[in-house]
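Researcher: Next sequence.
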Amino acid sequence: MPTTWKLRSILAASAVSLGFALLAGTPAAEARPQYVKEFILKYPDLKPEITKVKNCGVCHGGENGADKMVRNNYGESLMKLLGEINVKDAATIKTAMDKAADEKSATDGKSFGELIKEGKLPGESTAE
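Model: Next structure:
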């Protein structure tokens, strides 16, 4: 009987450990630091604005870009131009940003590039 009890204890402890390992190993969001890095290199004057929205707000929705599952209109445009998720090539990212600058933003009559020239983040809300 003691052998059965030990075996059950080991199996239960193993199952609990495996459960914790699976939960801990699942990331809540995947960071794409290469995008914000290239954005800052391209538009260094916007770095203070980017810092206010904690980097992710350049492309993502929610307060300060907190909702990583939702892209704002600039993030949607950039994703469409990149053509795939998690592009690492800096030249490809820069090309997509150049093209996105010419696209129409949610602000009536302004492109993303025009908003950037005004010192605004391209994906910010039109409601003030």
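Model: The CA atoms of residues 109 and 115 lie 10 Å apart. The first helix runs from residue 2 to 24.
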